[in-house]
Description:
- There is one protein chain.
- By secondary structure, the protein is an alpha/beta fold.
- The chain has two domains: 24-144 and 232-272, Bacterial extracellular solute-binding protein, family 7 (D-Maltodextrin-Binding Protein, domain 2); 146-231 and 279-304, Bacterial extracellular solute-binding protein, family 7 (D-Maltodextrin-Binding Protein, domain 2), CATH 3.40.190.170.
- Helices cover 44% and strands 16% of the residues.
- It has 14 helices and eleven strands.
- Helix 2 (37-53) links the parallel strand 1 (24-28) and strand 2.
- Helix 6 packs antiparallel against helix 13 (293-316) and helix 13 packs across helix 14 (321-336).
- The termini are far apart.
Amino acid sequence: MKRRTPLYAALATMLFVAPAQAKTELLFNLFIPRVHHFYKDHLVPWAAAVEKESGGRLTIKFTASSLGPIPRQFDLARTGVADIAIAQHVFNARRFVLPTIADLPFAGLSSEAASVALWKTHGKYFAKANEHKGVRLLAYIVIGPSHLWTIDKPVRTLADSKGMKIRAAARYAKNVVDGLGGVLIAKPGPVAYELISKGAVDATAFNIADIYNFRISKFLKNVTVFPGGLYAASFSMVMNQAKWDGLSKEDRAALMRASGEHMARLSGNWDEADRKAWGRIKKSGVNIIFASDNLIGELKAKFAPLEQQWVEMANKRGVDGAAALAFYKKTIAEEAAKSWRPTP
């Protein structure tokens, strides 16, 4: 038998070594500060899951600062300025109708429950409407429900909130503030500090953890807590379509395994942040008011038309709005049964 020469062995090795698989870095536009719990406890674990699921072929790179203003996040992904972005639906109101089911008053039982319910409702009812045309939808995120925080005057009745300037940002924020008899200051959360510190508003609708994330806790003396919140704020995590199309079938599958319902369940970290923040609030001296049955009843009467309006808008998009709403409510109730909620 002829003995192989070292050169022959080297050539054989070169021929039979599998080629290294290409790696793809995805640029994620980050418009929140890195100290925010959503970045640390939600986005970072998601990015790690993407890398793990893809066997290291996909990595996420977060921008040092936002590449565009908050209302333009969807367009940043659509036009390819960023590969991935998170867009709040309220800033794309003409495009997004269906996912704002999660923003309805008193519906935000918890961040995880709402995020999971919205993703499942999308798969069953919304996907065919193709509201995300131009991008690839990766996940939904619904943040913790918002309550009413005031700088000076506590709110126990509708008479107390009449005429108040209230900062809020969600699909139904105007309806909520109108119901309270206040004046809407429609600004996103990251500008709340500027408004509140300068006394430009009397109150703000905010979820529990964000009064610390955006450093406004020291200005707030009272909070009125509503079951399910006055509203929740929903977001789509979207990817540039061309970038998605350029991924291999295996990498697309890996990315969706880390996103979708998995990403929705990571929203449990938002609930945990709310729980920890609630402990701080109870020790801080903030005057905590749980909305009375009378106040809740008055507001529910004012908000009653909103669900029917959503159903009618969904019907116009080719979706059975009543069936979708019933499915969403059933799913979120099931998911929320195991969720934390603020208590006295």
